[in-house]
Write a structure and sequence with these properties.
With 444 residues, the protein is α/β, with parallel strands linked by helices. The protein is 35% helix and 23% strand. Strands 6-7-8-3-9-10 form a six-stranded mixed beta sheet, with helices on both faces.
Amino acid sequence: MNEGPDLAPAVRVEHLTVRFGARVALHDVDLTVRAGEFVALAGPNGSGKTTLLRVLLGFLDPDAGSASLFGTPVAHLSVRERARRVAWVPQEELVRDDIPIFDYVLYGRYSRLEPFGGESDADRVLAMQILTDVGLADRAEDGILSLSGGERQRATLARALAQDSPILLLDEPTSHLDIGHQLDLLDRVRRLSHTRNVTVIAAMHDLNLAARYADRIFVLSRGRPYIDGPPSLVLSEDLLGRVWSVAADLRKDPRTGTSYLVPHHLIGDVASSAIPPDRGPVHVVGGGGAASPYLRELTDRGFRLTTGALHLLDSDTETAEALGIPAAVEVPFAPLGDEVRAAHRRFLASARAIVVAPFLVGPSNLANLDDLGAFVRSTPIFLLARPPEPAWDFTGGRATGIEEQLRQDGARTMPDLPSLLAALESALGPSSKPSSASVGTAAG
């Protein structure tokens, strides 16, 4: 499957440096990955894992250094050539069109088609075989939006596999999966690596899963390489203490001999030591899972976040807990009470910017929008654009009216994630919280 010179490594990164404004996301990173190797990228939130993957995909140009695939610089490859060499499974993909799952997977064949050519019978047979392999063949004609988060992640993997590319990049591939499906997906990925010589690079938060499945673990800390080697040498109590500020015990599985870590308490203040003070706080308003992709992305970009008000058991609440993001949380299904609203307002008052995810609004969480009115003239508020479908306002139009008033008072609508990131970079300069005059100017 490999393309390019036989002796060239699948991936080579040399002296790679990437900056976002004044923040250095990656600094002088070197990494070489052989064909057929499974490498796990590990490190705390904001350490540069996703940034490194995006450089390899050609989504980001480095400020210094280089990245190549099978000996060819990424910058020299066309979009089609990159797609033929590398497939991509993101943390979260915001799918708007409810296309059949079979067609969604078939899109992965695009880079293999002749110009102006359509899919062949062989392409369709391959797509159905891959759906069978990931356990979704019985859902082939269902709409992609009908899938759960975990099922959609398997569909995204299936589309990547349909590309038949020799390199597979994954960004937190197990983030929406229960433990059974985590093991199933990583088993499949490891088999691809070892039986079909596919090179796998996966950003992973769970060090124990990384140790179980990866050939190597490459650890980043604050954008710099910390350690690189086989799991048996990388996993240690010292590693978790120095890089994650977590005390842990190192143990071995008596059945397999695999090392694993049992964390038991924090050492010091992780949040204050890991992220520069000028990167927040940014308060993210969400619910029902709508905020999760933004919480992950902004955290990985190095922003300090708060979130809420959310309900216990909400998937956004679970994401905030996993990422260590302070949140105002109410009991399930109840209207937001006075105590939770007071906590929410404290987060809003401390925020240097506010992001509103496209969450569904009903009587129980309308207060989240209502509370923003007191801050719109003093704090930049960014409203993520809502898709035309499905319906989102279940308050008889009150939520729609509040959002429109927020826009009239200076809140800005962001059409997509790149626009939001650019707006936050502009809003969160080294100065303190913007004055109402500067916010008014920016909002125009």
